[in-house]
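User: My collaborator sent over this chain with a note saying "see what the structure looks like." That's all I know about it. Can you take a look?
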Amino acid sequence: GGDVDSTKLWRAAGLTTVVGVAAVAAIWHLSYTLPQEPPFKHDVVLDSIGLEMALMPLDGLDPEDDPVRIPTGLYIQQIEYLSAYDVGVSGVIWQRIPAGHTREQHGIVFPEAVDVRLQESFTEPNGDGTTIGWHFTTTLRQPFRYNQYPFDREYVWIRLWHRDIFGEYALTPDFNSYPALRPTTMPGVEEDMVLEGWVPTGSFFGYRQNSYSTDFGGAAEIPPRGRPEMYFNIGMKRDFLAFFVGDMITLIIVSLLLFAVLMISTGHGVLADKDGFSSSTVLAYCACLFFVFIVSHVHLRQKLAGEGVIYLEGLYFVLYGAILLVSVASILFVSEVEWLGDEPWHPLV
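Assistant: Without extra context I'll predict from the sequence alone. Here is the result:
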């Protein structure tokens, strides 16, 4: 009878829901734990062998033509996302200046920085030269990609030039200043650094060959494949808990409320009076949910300022459709349509 059919429908709906939620959770888990890929091709440098391979384009046939290598290190103490594409970075940077060179010959340039503040912090003699360190604060503008939000992975990279941009110098990682350079050990990054909404995944030095459409007034000889330039990269991924509390709870609550609206739909006079069901009530309720939902959606777009459709927006579009379908169903339910049948119907009966 009707009771058996209703029970079967509830079991089928419950099983479908459990399977769907489990599948989505598995996909999200894989997306959150997969290895992170760099935003562009890097020659990752973890040891001296990797360094030699990365600097091969700068090496000449005559050893005397090889650039002077300046060991350079960084220690990042603070990273803060200032906007969708601006990130503030502060920390300490140093150079080991070889014997026979003056401090005026050397220094650091952040070519991609919007604002840089350098303050000399220390000067220490070493075995064959001098180590000079600066505390720096800078704002970097970088093309972060948010289309995979909330499972997006980002790299904050710090591009470094020598003060004499096209001189016979090459910046190299200061291997002796780090106990290990494996990315997972987070070399050069403050262990207790506070990252709002992000989790650090690794850091490493690397080189990227950049080419230019000018010779800077004849001051630079640019190889056809470009000059290898040193980068310090910090990988990060979203803090899933922060995302869940900030965005996902709204989606879950709206979904449950929408389901509750659907469950009070009935044509039975007594039950309709008890539940307060009417098509106008359902339409007003759906309109309220839509208003709350659209405010949340607009806030998400403003927060990320991303281009194109964001992954999480797929859930918003599904619930927009669900709100529309519940509204249409409430109107059809009280209208005289033959396929609805002659007998009063209630979802729980």
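A starting point for your reply to your collaborator: The longest helix spans residues 2-33.
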